[in-house]
Each structure stands twice: as structure tokens, then as C-alpha cells.
Design a protein that fits this description.
single chain, 284 residues, alpha/beta, Chemotaxis Receptor Methyltransferase Cher, domain 1, Rossmann fold, seven-stranded mixed beta sheet, three-stranded antiparallel beta sheet, 45% helix, 19% strand, binds S-adenosylmethionine
């Protein structure tokens, strides 16, 4: 059932959502709040969005409700090897270069951050790309040991699905090459489960890009911040790029989604073009 939302209620909720997550909803998005939050409002026993707004702002359950609102409002659309190019660059250019640094004793590990990982397809695609590369040299064990992937998302629900690593046939069909399905998944009932050795390369953490990073976040060599900044205000993008740069190693690389850019938001990064794929590195 959909509960009608007034313009005033929409303005209250959208400023709350932006304040909590950085997600900016345009003036034409009241239908989205209505559709995505009505059930939650009713489940909370509220009879209007105004009553719900007071509940999420001032009640003792405000903290729990905040997570539920962000779970419901965030768009978690994702697929395997999304846009292909970044994963090709990862396999052909970036990982071989970092591996060479390992071999020449200039680094111990490769730390990768999937900063809005949704239901896990992105970090698992990164892990499978790395395993595939290393398997060609019979060094999968070394890959599992050397490469650490941190996967985070604001949505606890998406993150739980990512951690579970169990996907329906329909989800699997969205971009996963059959060879990878047979190599890295096993069938469990109607679903496909990612193998433990792939999952074990990844640490899953609930993290909202709007707040200061956990102390456990180290210095990342590669950051995938893909298909998330499109939801943020220009002002938040500016702050976020500086925050992300502060969490990266000096020679680290940043991958954004197709159609996303740093232009106009930061001078800290510069673009790198590699056979049709643009990614970024910290300006020397
Ligand atoms: C469209 S999905 C993109 C997933 C994946 N990166 C990809 O490219 O396929 C956007 C994700 O960003 C997450 N998100 C939105 N706002 C966020 C925030 N403030 N902090 C962390 N994650 C956020 C959403 O929960 C959602 O899972």
C-alpha cells in the first residue's frame, strides 16, 4: 500500500536523507520516497509521513530507523563485471604493475576498497579477476594471501546479501561469464554460492561515506567508487573525493562509474586513459 506524501513531508524527508547519507533527491522524486518508504512508515505504526519523520528524528529508535530508511531509499542496482573496461584494466595493467612491485620487494600486499559494494557483485568481480590472473601462473594461493578487498556499503541489507554470497539464477545471469560461474560458485538448491576462497579475500563492513572512516581502514591501492556519486550533491562529491584521497596510498588508483567524473570537483586526482577506460590517480 502507498501512503500519500505531501510536498512539505517530502522536503522534510529528503533533507533528512541527504543529511544522513549524502543522497540528494531532486524536486521530482517525491514518488520515489512515497514508493520506497510507505511500507516502512506503516510497519512502524505511523499514519502519516509527518508522524514517521518525528519518529526517525526524535524517538529512542531513531538510530535503528535511520538504517531502515537508508536501506529502503538507496538504489542497489548492480551487476557482475559492470561496464567490463575497469576489470580489463585491472587484469591487464593495474594488478600486473602492483604484482611487479611485490616481486621487487617494494610492497607486501595489494589493498582494494569497493566503497559502495551493494549486494557484492563488484567486490566478487574484483576477487575473481585477480584469481583468474594469478591462476594463469599457478599462484592462486599467493593471490588469496596478498590481495585484501574491503567491501562496504551504507545499506546493512545489501551488505548482508553481499556477505552471504548466494545468488539466484536471475542475478547470476546479469553479466557473470559461464566460465567464472563454474570455477568460483557452487550450486546450493535454487541458488549459486560463491566459494569460500573467494569470499575469504573480502572483509565486509557497513560504512556510510558521509561519516569519518573507521580506524581499521588502511591505505588503499585501488578504490572502486562506482555508480554511487551520481546520487550525491556537488558539495558532498567535493568533500568525498578529498576523503577518499586521504584513504589511498600515494600511487593509488580510483575507478568511478561510466558517466561519473572528478571534473569540477577535485584537483587531487588526474585522469589516466587506458584503451577506452578512464580512471584516476593521485596527482604527484
Ligand atoms: C547503484 S549501487 C552501485 C553498486 C556498485 N558499486 C556498482 O557499480 O554496481 C549504489 C550503492 O551505493 C550505496 N550507497 C548510497 N549512499 C551511500 C553512502 N552514503 N555510503 C555508502 N554507500 C552508499 C547504496 O546502498 C548502493 O548499494
Amino acid at each position: 500500500m502507498t501512503l500519500p506524501i505531501s510536498t512539505h513531508e517530502f522536503f522534510l524527508l529528503r533533507s533528512y536523507i541527504e543529511e544522513q547519507s549524502g543522497i540528494r533527491l531532486g524536486d521530482d522524486k517525491s514518488y520515489l520516497v512515497e514508493n520506497r518508504l510507505s511500507n516502512l512508515v506503516l510497519e512502524c505504526g505511523c499514519s502519516s509521513f509527518t508522524e514517521f519523520y518525528h519518529r526517525i528524528r526524535y524517538s529512542p529508535q531513531a538510530h535503528i530507523l535511520k538504517d531502515a530508511v537508508l536501506d529502503a531509499i538507496a538504489t542497489n542496482e548492480t551487476l557482475w563485471f559492470r561496464d567490463r573496461h575497469p576489470f580489463r584494466v585491472l587484469r591487464e595493467t593495474v594488478l600486473p604493475r602492483l604484482q611487479e612491485e611485490i616481486e621487487t620487494g617494494r610492497r607486501e600486499r595489494i589493498a582494494i576498497w569497493s566503497a559502495a559494494c551493494s549486494t557484492g557483485q563488484e567486490p566478487y568481480s574484483i576477487a575473481m579477476t585477480a584469481l583468474d590472473l594469478y591462476s594463469r601462473r599457478d599462484r592462486e594461493k599467493e593471490c588469496e594471501r596478498r590481495i585484501r578487498i574491503t567491501a562496504s556499503d551504507v545499506s546493512g541489507r545489501s551488505l548482508a546479501a553481499a556477505r552471504a554470497g548466494s545468488y539466484s539464477e536471475a542475478a547470476i545471469c546479469r553479466g557473470l561469464p559461464p566460465a567464472y560461474l563454474h570455477r568460483y560458485f557452487q550450486k546450493a538448491g535454487n541458488c549459486w554460492e560463491i566459494e569460500d576462497r573467494v569470499r575469504d579475500m573480502i572483509s565486509f563492513t557497513q560504512y556510510n561515506l558521509k561519516v569519518p572512516p573507521p580506524r581499521t581502514f588502511g591505505s588503499f591501492d585501488l578504490v572502486f567508487l562506482r555508480n554511487v556519486i551520481i546520487y550525491f550533491s556537488d558539495e558532498f562529491k567535493r568533500t568525498l573525493f578529498e576523503k577518499v584521497a586521504g584513504l589511498m596510498s600515494p600511487r593509488g588508483f580510483l575507478f568511478l562509474g561510466t558517466g561519473e567524473t572528478i571534473t569540477g570537483y577535485t584537483e587531487t586526482f588526474e585522469p589516466v586513459e587506458d584503451a577506452g577506460c578512464i580512471y584516476y590517480r593521485i596527482r604527484p
